[in-house]
From TrEMBL:
It is found in: Cytoplasm, Cytoskeleton, Microtubule organizing center. It comes from Anopheles christyi. GO terms for cellular component: centrosome; gamma-tubulin ring complex; interphase microtubule organizing center; spindle. This is Mitotic-spindle organizing protein 1. It comes from the Eukaryota. Keywords: Cytoplasm, Cytoskeleton. The keyword Cytoplasm applies. InterPro entries: MZT1.
Amino acid sequence: MPEPSGNDHSNTNLYMRLQQSQLVRTNIQNISQFLNTGLSPETLDICVKLLEAGVHPQSLSEAVIQIRNEMAALNNGQSGE
């Protein structure tokens, strides 16, 4: 059975949203690289999703910095052994 014509419009909208989402994601990754944030694409995606979910940007920034500092301390401790 053929699908209703309304579904074609819905599929087109979904495709357009995915294309726009991919373009936005690419632009955010380019900005991140330009600013030398050191965030991987996966980490950047997680941060964007957290921001979209309502996490306060300053709090997220502070958490990322704290995690980086703790990871650096762990790495320095391991290399000094």
